[in-house]
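Field: COMPLEX_INPUT
Field: COMPONENT_COUNT = two
Field: RESIDUE_TOTAL = 720
Field: MODE = joint
Values follow.
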Amino acid sequence: MNRVYNFSAGPACLPLEVLKEAAEEMCDYRGSGMSVMEMSHRSSIFQDIIDEAEADLRKLVKIPDNYKVLFLQGGASQQFAAVPMNLMKNGVADYIVTGQWAKKAAKEATKYGKVKVLASSENKVFSYIPDCSSLDIDGDADYVYICENNTIYGTKYHTLPDTKGKDLVADVSSCFLSEPTDINKYGLVFAGAQKNVGPAGVVIAVIRDDLIRDDLPEYVPTMLKYKTHADAGSLYNTPPCYGIYICGKVFKHLIKEGGLEAMKEKNEHKAGILYDFLDESKMFSNPVERGSRSLMNVTFVTGNEELDKEFVKAAAARGLVNLKGHRTVGGMRASIYNAMPLEGVESLIAFMKEFEKEHR
Amino acid sequence: MNRVYNFSAGPACLPLEVLKEAAEEMCDYRGSGMSVMEMSHRSSIFQDIIDEAEADLRKLVKIPDNYKVLFLQGGASQQFAAVPMNLMKNGVADYIVTGQWAKKAAKEATKYGKVKVLASSENKVFSYIPDCSSLDIDGDADYVYICENNTIYGTKYHTLPDTKGKDLVADVSSCFLSEPTDINKYGLVFAGAQKNVGPAGVVIAVIRDDLIRDDLPEYVPTMLKYKTHADAGSLYNTPPCYGIYICGKVFKHLIKEGGLEAMKEKNEHKAGILYDFLDESKMFSNPVERGSRSLMNVTFVTGNEELDKEFVKAAAARGLVNLKGHRTVGGMRASIYNAMPLEGVESLIAFMKEFEKEHR
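Field: COMPLEX_OUTPUT
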């Protein structure tokens, strides 16, 4: 087995321990005589798997009792419609646009009501998080929406917006479980699992009870109502069972590793040494405003497109893969989620130093 | 490793060969140094996986060039909304109700237009497929909808309805790939993978090009438009990558086993010996009208609820598991999809004979 350091933005690296366990259990899950992929979602054995996953997630994030945990499908993109469909009561919502995903979410929401963009960082290619301490929030707004970590640009909210009492909805796809979160500050958070949690095809939503409503417009599909899934314990129809099982293993792994406090410390250290290097380098630089830097996605450029390409290629040849930046912004990006070991980041820095020396 | 014979209706048994390969490739897919779960969906290596899966499926089912293959999420239940949202042009659709799933689909469609139930078998607990040779099809109907194999009741259309030129839409979740299908007879077929194809969390839709439209009502979520996924080759957002990879392995396995003609022969033989036994038995009987019997889901009862329970329990102790009928109908059900070996059905029959003798 030849494992690489995989800096993909998502789907992304998973703990090797989790993958090994999954491989061992593939044909016969704990003496059941079948794979988790083959199990009825109505069986007690699968019920145990999903119950344990939820319980471990609740423990890990300290999710309050008045919030439901939902295992959904369709990616964050489907939530872009589900959020306004379910949460727009007055038909008004406020969005803060800090990247492509927040922009897409805002656009999708215009189908269902009046959307106000409270703030945007598009003027500087989304390289910063706008000041959100004094926003002109609509009095009728049903919620304020953010994308908390911006995978493409490598930015992150270090302070949540002052929503003036309105419910905060956050797409946390690329930062969920990377550090402790106070769920009480949100009405709803959701995350596509494929970045920091598990395989693609699972979305985890954590929603406060009172936001789960049934009096929705007729056109809202049954499958897009949070109530449908909340009432059924995420088993209204067949859920993405295998993905949930893998997420559950990741939760257990994180608990064993010391929980989210320990993750935060590790992640700050990993990102810290990489940003320190970038700040000192004469060849590589990070295009993000210092106070907005992501812990999970570190973007960097040489300032020369050809050199960027050469770097990505040479790094891959050394087993440092998927360092190419998002197609819309170019450059490089190192996604250093929980499962990226410190050694991966150290190897990357060592290689960058070497590359810089060779190309001086 | 101790494998059981798993008669689950879905998620259901998969070919052991497929699971073994997946286990071997879990931590390092073909020298890539990563799991398929960890791969960027924008990488060439994953593009090859999805392209190969589609090409193999097209070969297997002989899908004509003017049909698109889509890998979607959300289960058949989400298609219950997507179908009328995308296909209702006149706002009218005709449904044939042969079970719980068709009934749910018809109900969901009423949100989006006028729905006429052309025929129903609810009067006899869905134990037969109605005569569909001379239906009173609405002149304005945008499509005629069926659920081709009814998993809960063990029925199947042996002749497709005469739709009088209207497009036929079929939920083929529990019979897809069980025998050759002439796709030209349908406008759209869709299947939740978790019955006869792969793991839960993948839906495969095959849709004729001209039914993929963009002029849909404003409220249709981007993620529920077939056009979104058709235009992006099922990569508009992150698809359920690992599930697609497993489906691809199943397609290759079926091609190797002789394709759908060979599957049909095997499936007819497996179902044949089981129905023959049920017809001869003095204890067990199949409640379905003979001309409507499913090849995939064989339902049976003893006529005594306590005895049914005892049978299910005793069978499980012998490694014949998940034989309990659907909670809404009771009794027993043996789902004998492609991946159920003949030996599994033979073992079941042998055990039923033994049980019958003991309880005479």
